Every structure is written in C-alpha cells, then in structure tokens.
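Box S2. Input/output pair 1.
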Amino acid sequence: MWKGSTVLVTGGAGFVGSNLVDGLLAAGANVRVLDNLSGGSEENLAHCVNDIELHIADLKDPAAVDKAVKGCQSIFHMGANASVPRSVDDRKNDFESNVVGTYNIADSLIKHNVERILYASTAAAYGTPQYTPVDEKHPLDPVSPYGATKLCSERLLFGYSQVFDFDLTVVRIFNTYGPRQRHYVAYDLMMKLAKDPTKLEVLGSGKQLRDYCYVDDMVAGLMFAAERATNPGEVFNISGGRTVSIRELVSLIMDTLNLKDTEVTYGAPSWKGDIDILSGDVSKINDAGWKPTISIEEGLRRLAIELGLIEDSAEKRCVNG
C-alpha cells in the first residue's frame, strides 16, 4: 500500500522516526518529514536526505504543518515531547507540542482529506499498572504530564475520526532501543560503562520492569499497524514481548560488552512520573500477524556495534523463537 503514496512522518529526524523513514522508503513511499530538530537530528537523515522532502518546522506552527500535510495520503504522527522529566519541568511546552501539535495535524488532515493517520502514543497512558502484562483494555490513568498529554491527543484524534471519517490507528509504544538512540536506559547504561567500565551507578532499585523492543521491530510493527487503520480507530500495544528488570538489563549489557568486574550500585533517585512496571501484552497485534523477531541479546549487540563499543562479528544472530 505504500509504493507511490505520499507519507508524512512527523518527528522523522528522531530516533524511531528516522528509522521509520528508512522503512517507508524501502517500501516505495514518497516520504516527507516534519521535525523541529529539538530532539532529532539532520544527521539521522543524512543518508537519505536526497530521497525525502524535509520540512524543518514546529508542530506548533499551523502554517508549516498545513504545508507538510497537503497532498499526503497517510501520516505517521511520531513528533512529540517524549520525555517524562521534561514534561514535569516544562509543562507548557509539553502540552503545546503534544496536544496543540496534534490538533494542528488533525486540522490539516481534515482540510486536505488525508486518508489515514497512525498516532504514536505511549505505554505511559496506562499509568501504574493494575495488572501485568498490560493489554489494550487496561484502564487509562496516566501519572505524568507526558502520559496525560499523549492520552489527550489519542482522544482528540478518535473524536475527530468519528466526525470527519478518516482512518485512525493508535499504537501505544513501550520502550524502544537501537541505532540512532541517544537517550534513555540502554544507551545511557552503555555510555556510562564506556566512560568507566569499573563502576556503574543505576537509577532506582534496579527492580523496575521494562519491555524493550528493538527499533527495526518497532518500525515493522508501526507499518503493519498502519496498514490496518480503521474508523473507529484500532489500538495496538507494540513491545518486544519479553519483560526484564533493570538489573537483568545491566547484566545483559555487561555480557554484551564483555565486562565481568564492574561494581554496580543501585538506589539513586529516579525522576517524578517514572513507572516501576512497563510490561506490554502484545497478543492482539501478534494475533493480527506481527511479532518481534530480534531478541534483546541481539539488539543490544547491534546497538553496541553502532556505538563503536564492540566489533562486529560473523557470529549467528539470535532471534526470538
């Protein structure tokens, strides 16, 4: 469905967004990117800049959004403030980027009769889990400004889709990692160890549970979900399908980097709005036909290679069975 179609990726210079741009180009789409470069980088698109239409502009600018949306058949709305700490420290920007930005996308989508939109939401919309793994029917009770603004945008798009008859898919993303990532747990731990392999200080108790999805799997999941866009909007969780504690993640990273004598300490305070358990039930999208293929061991190996922390090898890559 992508070959020859014009697709807008908001936040397309970011970590997940730029990898999604690669996936869409490989599928034959004509790709536009809208990004203000506050979290993304032109470097992430340097390899394909001649193959895309790049709009360096802000989601908060209605005219710039309208220019990027006009003529598109599909939108992947990835652009947002994606940081819980920043949503606490700068609530105004979080609201305007996530909610006002989504309104501007929706308003232009309606004006130009865009056929479908995939909205990249977040597991933070669920809040503190009442049960795990969290499925799509779990109550929505965010505990951070970030989670609240993302849920607000979900509801905004759903309401508009009912009235204005465009197809909508909502994907609630759990933790993602891989090449071009320059923030968050897996990357941060690797870079701390690269700086000083003798000791590692980890935020929190280390008992926090996370469900990590390698970025190539995330891209495949996003494209798969978008192809199933419906009105009313379908909601899918996307995660790696394997929950590990931060302590387990630390151990896996140390194995990846071949470190054995590192002194690891836990207990440094985490940030406000952090959730102890993020474990996603992906049976719904699995049943529809998508499953992750890259194990966390293999994904961490690929990330370490991309960061120049280990050398590539011809060893057989591990995949989820």
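Box S3. Input/output pair 2.
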Amino acid sequence: MNPTHPVTLPQATGELPAVPLTIEGFATLHQMMRFRWTAWRATAERVRHEIAAEAAQLLSGMESGSNGQSALFSLLGHKGDLMFVHFRESFDQLNQAELDLARLRLHDFLEPTSSYLSVIELGLYESSLKTYKALAEQGAEPHSEAWKQAIAEIVERQKEAMKPRLFPPMPPNRYICFYPMDRRRGETENWYKLPMEERQRQMHDHGLVGRRYAGEVKQIITGSIGFDDWEWGVDLFADDPLVFKKLIYEMRFDHVSAVYALFGTFYVGVRCPAAGLGELLEGKLPGRA
C-alpha cells in the first residue's frame, strides 16, 4: 500500500434515509380548561379563599420545579378560560402533574376543553444530510448496526450541546400564543415527497424569519407525531402580543409556510403567576410581575 495515497472506503449501496435526525427534550402538555364561574360564585367566600390558596400552593411548587416547570395562563376568547402548560422530563411526570391538579378542590370547577401532548424537538436538517453522506462515504450501509451506532453517538453529542434549548426554563413573558401545525401531504403538494436537500434548504430559509424576532419573542417547537392529532406544536412567548401577529404574518410569506403549512387552533393567554391565582378567581387579572 502506498502511504502517499489515501485509502478509499467502499461506498454504501443503500439509499440515504429521507427522515431528518431529531433530538428531544422536555415532555410537554398543554391543558385548556373552562371555569365554572356560576358554581364558583355560589360557593361561600371563605371556602373560595381556601380552595384558591390550596391551588396556589401547588402551582407555586410547579412553577419552581427542578425537573421541569409549569405555568398558568388566562385565555382570551371562547376557547377556554385557563391554560396550564407543563414541561417535564418524562411522560410519567406529566401524568403526575395532571393527577396533582385533578386532586385539587379547584378541579371540581374546571372542565377540560382541549389538550395537547408533545415533546420539545430540534430538527437537525442542517447536519442530517452531511452526516448521512459522510457515513455513506465511509462505507456504512444505511440502517446497519454500524450506521445506527454512529447515528446514536452523533445524536447524543448534539443533545448535550443543545441541552439549554431542549430543557429550557418556562419563559417568564406576560403573553403566550400556542398553536399546532402540520406539513401538507396531499392533493397537489406533499412536503414528505420533497428531497432531503430541498427540505433542508426551505427550513433554513424559514428559520431566518424567526431569527429576526429573536429579541422580541421566545419560540419553543414541540414534536407531536404519534402523540397528538397534529405534527408539531408551537409556543410563542412575548411581552407584547402584537409580536405574535407580526411574526406569524411574515412567516405566511415564507415559501415553506405559504405552500406546505397547515395550522390548527390558536390559543392566546395572559400569564397568571401562582401568587395571583386568588385575584384571577375573583375576576381580577393579576398585574405584571
């Protein structure tokens, strides 16, 4: 063997995967509730105060949890009165949060209107194609044991590097906008039939729009394929709700949204810290923290 010439590894013969790599963080649950105001007003004032204090104590612990946090929002419009948002390290912990709320006396006055289950997700479009091609050039066959081991190592490194984005604290902003969404996959356009290179290019351009609002809005994307009725959930947090309109409107003109995006129901709410729960239940929105 001539040491001056590089060794050429055999090319993998299998077709490169079409699915981009993803890394996941907190399990996430949104609970939308309607409040039974008539029954609440019929309850003695002393009992109302006791119920509110009990709920506020639980919510306070959830707000400051070390394994993920929760937040309560007062919803605008007819879709519900309250929305609880939970970040946890596992689905078991999410279910425990549900059970803890269900055990409260306050829960007797709540009627679920909707919910959404998902996990914080970062799509690795930028690196997936490079990774797949590099492994193929090294002779690794797609989906072989060597391929899967190499992918697992890469994903683990990426997850460690992206930990702050995968396991974030609950944003403290005053307002939230949550909505689920899909990518079109029928009729004349189908996102999932596009080549990986084209999806990567469009997602890169799509991300540039959001980055222009980096100082005004905090965006958290969650994946829900296999968990709920839509494919992704989007949470936007800001101190000025008009930012939601401006950002989403501008996104509409981006190619990937204009052609492939399908949107579900939008929920907009105002933050209610645990300390302000009593005020909220007496019909007064708590002030800014």
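Caption for Box S3: The two ends are 71 Å apart (CA to CA). The chain has a mean pLDDT of 90.
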